[in-house]
Amino acid sequence: MAPSAAQRIVIENCSIATVDANDTEYASGHIVIAGNRIESIGAGRAPENLADVERRIDASGHLVTPGLINTHHHFYQWITRGLATDHNLFNWLVALYPTWARIDEEMVYAAAQGSLAMMARGGVTTAMDHHYVFPQGSGDLSGAVIRAAREMGVRFTLARGSMDRSEKDGGLPPDFAVETLEGALAATEETVKKHHDASFDAMTQVAVAPCSPFSVSTELMRQGAELARRLGVRLHTHGSETVEEEKFCHELFGMGPTDYFESTGWLGEDVWMAHCVHMNDSDIAAFARTKTGVAHCPSSNARLAAGIARVPDMLAAGVPVGLGVDGTASNESGELHTELRNALLINRLGAHREAALNARQALRLGTHGGATVLGRAEQTGSLEAGKLADLVLWKLDTLAHASIADPVTALVFGAAAPVTASFVNGRQIVENGRLLHADEDAIAHSTRTEAQRLARIAAQR
C-alpha cells in the first residue's frame, strides 16, 4: 500500500534529473512525496515547516531520477539462462522452444520473481512481461506473473501473448505449446477483463500481444488488434528483429514486416514493437506517422547478432522509443540500468558514430521514453508535481563515480551505480541495493530449483 495522502517523505540535498519536457535539472534540490504522488520538486532544501513529514532523507552524493521503465521482457526465460549462447535468433529459438514448451505455473512464478527482483534492485519501477508460451495444462501462467509483480511492489504491464502457428503450420513452436485462434483470443480477453486497471495510479495493466509474424497467423494478428481496441488496451509484438524475419514476411505475405503490420491493423499510437532492428527509411516514416512505439533492446540484439537498430533516426523522425531488457535467455544479466550505457555505446557503432546518443538521451529512453511507449507518460517517466512517486536514488559518491563531475554522465557512462533507495507509488521497495519486500536468497534458490526441474523434464522428451 502507498502511504496515506497526509504523510510526506522529503528527499533533499541531491542532484535531480527530472527528464521533463525541458530536461530540467537541479545541482542540489529536493523532492516532496505526499502519498503516492510527487507533491513538489525544486532547487535547494525543502521548506522546514512542512506538516506531517514522516521521514526526511539526506540524499547528499546522490542523483535522483525517475524510476526506470522496462518495455520488453520474457520473464519465464530466467530459468533457461546461459543456453544456446552462440546462436542467432532463429537457431536460438529452435534450440530453446522444446524446453520452453515444458514450463508450468510454478516455474513461471519463480522465473518472474527472479526477473523482477533483478530489475527492481537496479532501479526499475515499472516492468513489463511479454508472456506468449502457454503449454496445454500448464496452469494459470498470467496469474502467476501478475502475483509475482504485485508481491515485488513494482508497477507492471502484462503483455498477454499468444501463438497459433506451430511446427505443423510452418512455425517454430511445438504443436502442444500453441493455442488455437479462438482459444488465444478468448484467454486474452479474459485476462484483460480480470486484471487490467485503467486508473491513473494503476499497478497492473494488460496489453494484447500475439508473439511475432512467424509464430502467429494473420487472423490472430488482425483479430488481436480488433480485440485490443474494443477493450481499450495497448498492443505489443516483435517486429523487424532479423533479416530472416524480413525474408520470411516477403515469402509468406509478399511484403516486408512494416507493411504487413499495417495491413493487419498493427500500426498506431496504441502499439509498440520490440526490437525494430531492420527498418528502412520508409518503415521509420510509417512508425513516425502513426506514432507506433519501439522497445529498443541493445544487449539482446547484440547477444543474438541481430544488428544495430537505427535509434537516432527513429528519434529524429519522432518515433517513441523506450528500452527493454528482453528475455534473460538472450540477456543473461536481466538488468535495465546497464542498458542505458549499452544503448549509448552500441548506437555509436552505427552510422551516426559519436553523435548517435548522449547521456541524457539514453536516460530519457529508459524513463520518459519507456513511459510513452507503455502509454503512461501522463503518470510516470519524469519527476513532476502531480505525477506518481516512482523514483530512484543513485549513489554516485563512491570510488566508481566520485571523480565524474556530471551526475548524469556518471550514471550512464560509468559503472552500474548502486541504488540506495527506490520508490514505487510512494512506497520504498529497495534500500541500499536490497529488496525490502522479497527474500533474494529464497528467490535465488527457487529459480535454481525450477531451472533444474525444467532441464530434467526437457531432457526426457
TrEMBL record:
Keywords: Hydrolase. It comes from Streptomyces similanensis. This is 8-oxoguanine deaminase. It comes from the Bacteria. It holds the Pfam family Amidohydro_1. The keyword Cytoplasm does not apply. InterPro entries: Amidohydro-rel, Metal-dep_hydrolase_composite, Metal_Hydrolase, MTA/SAH_deaminase. Residues 63-427 form the Amidohydrolase-related domain.
